[in-house]
Structure formats: C-alpha cells, structure tokens
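Standup notes
- HV: blocked on the assembly model, inputs below
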Amino acid sequence: MYASPFFVKGFSFESNIFMAPLAGITDKAFRAFLRCFKPGFMFTEMVPLPALFHRASLLEDYIDLPVEAKDTGIQIIGNNPEWFEGIAIELEKRGLKWLDINCGCSVPKVLKQKHGAYLMREPERCRQIFRAIRNSFSGICSVKIRAGWDRSSLNYLRISEIAFEEGLDVVFFHPRTARERFSSPAEWQWVKNLKMAFPQKYIFGNGDLFTEEDVQQKWQYSEVNGMLLARGAMKAPWFFSCIRRYLRGENPPPPSLQQRLEYLMVHMDCLIEKKGERKGVKEMRKFMGWYLSGMYGVKKLRRYLPGMKTRKDVVRFIQIVYNMHLIS
Ligand SMILES: Cc1cc2nc3c(=O)[nH]c(=O)nc-3n(C[C@H](O)[C@H](O)[C@H](O)COP(=O)(O)O)c2cc1C
C-alpha cells in the first residue's frame, strides 16, 4: 500500500506523504507556501519544551491554533514527562490534532541537554513521556525516532514497542543512529525490519528521499504506511506534487525556470507577510539558492544574494535571471 489516503484515530488525510519537522525551515511561512503542493500533513519545527512549559504563549510563534490544526502537527522536544503532560493538556485545549515527540534530533547542543535522540538511550524515560502524553492528549500521538544511539546499541524495535504499548498511534522512523547524524546513508533495511515487526501498526519511513524513484523504490521495499519528506522537500517543495504525479504513472518534468521564479515570489511573500520585509527577504536568500539550483547562470548570480534586502531587490534579481535565460 503506498501513496494513498491515510486514516488514523478517526482522522483522514488525503495523502500519506507528509512534511517532516525541520528546525529553521517548517515555520508558518514555509507551511503557507507548501500548501500549494498539497502535502498530506505537515509538522512545525521542533518546539523546545523547557521554554514552552514556562511560557505557553510561545506556542503562537510556531503555529496558529486552532486554524492550522487541520493540516499541521506540533513536534515537541524535551525530556521531562511532567512538562510533556502539562503541554499536552494545553494543546488539547487549543484543538491540536497531532502531537509528535522528538526522539531523533542529534544536534550536539540538543544531545548535551539529554533531549532528542539522547532519549534513545533511556527507554524507561521514553515510556514515562509516552504515557504522560497519552494520558492527557486525545488526538494523534507519534514519536520520531532514530535507529539507536550508535550501531552497537540499535534499539528502534524496543523503543517502538514501548511506544505502541503506551498507546502511541504512529512511529516516524529515520534509520540512522544518533552518532551518525547524516554521515552515512539511511538504512532502509531497518525500516523494513520495523514494519515487519509491527505489521498492524502505523510506521512512516524517512531518510534520503530526494527523487521520485527514491520514494517509490523505498516504499515498495519497506512497505511502510507513509513517508516523511525532509531535505528533498526543503530544497524543492514542489517535490510533493511531482511524487503524486509520478506514482500515478506520469513522468513530470522538473519545474521550468519561470515556474521556479513564480514559486520563489509566492514563498517570499508568505515570509514577508509573517515576518516583515527585512527578515522575510533575509530568510528567503537560502531558499533562492536552493530553488534555482542547477539553472543556467545562477551560480554566477549567487554572489548577489547576500546584498538583497528588499522585495524590490529580489524582483530585480529575478528579472536578471529571467533575461539571462531569454538570451542564452
Ligand atoms: C535543517 C534540518 C532541520 C531539522 N530539524 C528537525 C526537527 O526540528 N525535528 C526533527 O525531528 N527532525 C529534524 N530534522 C531531521 C529531519 O526531519 C529528517 O529526519 C532528516 O533530515 C532525514 O530525512 P532526509 O534524509 O530526507 O533529509 C532536521 C533536518 C534538517 C536537515
């Protein structure tokens, strides 16, 4: 079963290909833009629990509830079960549909705090967190895990077992260890193992999904219930529409330069609307590099990116890129 509607806990989703949580990327502006490409569901950036517990209003920086609850879940990172419980109660009140627990982040600063993928070393703490959330939140609960701390301590089967014992609904699995971060390829064999171990449960795979073929092959191989796209969609958000068309048997060409320039403008306007012109344009620069990557002449023009400060600067840049193509 792949690329199809997804149903869990009485909720339905048009597609089982979701946008992964990405710190610094999947903010309100990115999600507003990503809606053009119809992901099945999306997640906020990871929201740090200690800060959130002390100031629940911080939530508003990450998600507009209850409006965004229809297509966006919150991912929480922390390690204190009581704090998880407190926040889950708040989220329940505010109409959140999906809450995800981060047991996968391997950024050194996060591991030092014993958050994120550090929890893979602490199965009993995981259990307490899962239980605390399940007892206080009636929506969909998931956990996003890595394969273990390192290759000598792979425990994704055990952590998933605990998650399901405690009533979590979905496991998102990024099959690398915490120690590896991104240094080695995602091990889809482990995803397949997990799905085989829990054939009746919902498992989503994640890792190294960059092309339509990657998605199809890894899906056929692992037989997961869904996929989470991360870097592939971060650099090319239209990946969601391309995959849908590809899996229907079409062979969609990559978006033309004109389409990419249009996308870029739409995303920038979302950023400006949410963050103001100066901040929005500044943040847009990294996306511009990604969205235009591979286009003729763009390498040379990259040096102008840091100087762009206003929407007008960007429009001028777009005009130059476009004219270059017309005369090339
Ligand atoms: C810039 C960036 C930010 C990320 N932020 C988060 C995060 O907030 N929460 C999380 O669970 N994973 C985070 N991840 C991990 C991704 O969700 C995903 O698991 C990982 O990138 C593997 O998928 P990929 O190989 O398709 O990129 C982040 C990854 C990147 C590259």
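- HV (later): unblocked. Residues 203 and 225 are 6 Å apart (CA to CA). Strands lie at 6-8, 11-13, 17-19, 42-48, 72-77, 98-103, 140-145, 170-173, 202-206, 226-229.
- Next: hand off to the docking folks.
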